[in-house]
Amino acid sequence: MKVTVCELSNxxxxxxxxxxxxxxxxxxxxxxxxLLPEMPxxxxxxxxxxxxxxxxxxxxxxxxxxxxxxxELAPATVVSTQPVVDGxxxxxxxFLWSAAAGYQPAHRKYYLPNEDGFxxxxxxQPGPKEFVPAELADLQIGFLICTxxxxxxxxxxxxxAGVELVAAPRATGMSSTEKWIAGGRAAAxxxxxxxxxxxxxxxxxxxxxxGGHGWIIEPEEGAILGLTSAQQPFLTIDIDxxxxxxxxxxxxxxxxx
Length: 257
Fold this sequence. Notes:
There is one protein chain. Helix content is 26%, strand content 28%. It is an alpha/beta fold and 257 residues long. The chain has a single domain (2-247), classed as Carbon-nitrogen hydrolase (Nitrilase/N-carbamoyl-D-aminoacid amidohydrolase, 4-Layer Sandwich), CATH 3.60.110.10. Helix 4 runs parallel beside helix 5.
């Protein structure tokens, strides 16, 4: 299966310039799945301490508008998150999109940080504490949205459920890149699944430097198959899903709890 990860600019003008290049890359590489960063289509809202519902609603509308552009990536399935409103609550919702099935909600982010630059618990509410694999044909995908990756019991539960891919869309800074890569390797080993992550890049509010470094990590030993960079913001690798299925039978995945 050909899977693509990326790093996309936090700035809208730069993102618009990147988009056609990403579409061309996916077509040229015959990508079957593309993972986008966390809430990729607007500048990062949670950098501000005080939530603004008008800004949140604008981000919802912007993501829904960009969703119409996803058809340019067909036949690839697109995986990401977007801001949503459900009744009186805001959420960060993981989804799958395909030309055939359209938008399919899959998971709402549960673990929300609240610190300088990442005031997420101020801006939106946690979803239910449910980590249920999303199904795509005969493929099972587990979501670990950014901070969720550090709650490793869910990677272990995904191993028991037989997932082949763990999708980890992120919004993380450059200064913590090595820590996040280590977490991605642990998630791959614990789940026995290929771990894919895409991230924001560029400079945000107050000069904050986004980390980039999307990755594809294999499930048996946690080896990094590839990383994106400013020079190579898109990465496609042909992965063998049987490797993930076999990994469930090997150490440490087989050890009984």
